[in-house]
Amino acid sequence: MSRGQRISGIGMLCLGLLCSSSADVQAEDWLQFRGNATDSVAVNEALPTELSGSTIAWKSELPGRGVSGPIIANGQVYLSSSSGYSQDRLHVLCFDADSGNKAWERQFHATGRTMTHEKMSNATPTMASDGQRVFAFFSSNDLICLDSSGRLLWFRGLGSEFPNASNSLGMSSSPVVVGGIVVVQVESDAEAFACGIDIASGETKWQIERPRAANWTSPSVIPATNKQPALVLLQSSKGLTAVDPQSGKIQWNFEKGASTIPSATVSKGTVYVPSNGLTALRPGTEQVEELWNSGNLSPSTPSPVVMDGMALVVNSSGVLTAGNPENGERLWQLRLRGAFSSTPVVANGYLYAFNEAGVAFVVKPEADKGTIVSEMDLAETILCSPGVSNGGLFVRSDRHLIKLATPK
Amino acid sequence: MEIRQHYFYPQGRGCMRAWRGLLTACVLWSVLSASAPAADAVSNAVQVLQSLKGGGVDNKSAQRAVVTLVGSGERAMLPILQGFQNASPLGANWLRNSFEQIADRIVSTGKPLPTTALEEFIRDTTQSATARRLAYETLRAQDPAIESRMIPEMLLDPGAEFRRDAVARLVEEASKAEGPAAVELYRKALTGAVHEDQVKVVAEALRKNGETVDISRHFGFVSRWMLTGPFDNREEKGFAVAYAPEKEFETQGPSLSAEYDGMNGKVTWKPLETTDDYGLIDIAAQIENFKGSAMYASTVWNSPAEQSLQIRLGTPNAWKLWVNGKLMFEREEYHRSSQMDQYVIPVTLKAGDNSICLKICQNEQTQEWAQKYQYQLRVCDSTGAGVLPAPVAAGNSEKSGGEQ
Question: Does the beta-carbon distance from A189 to B333 stay under 8 Å?
Answer without folding.
Answer: yes
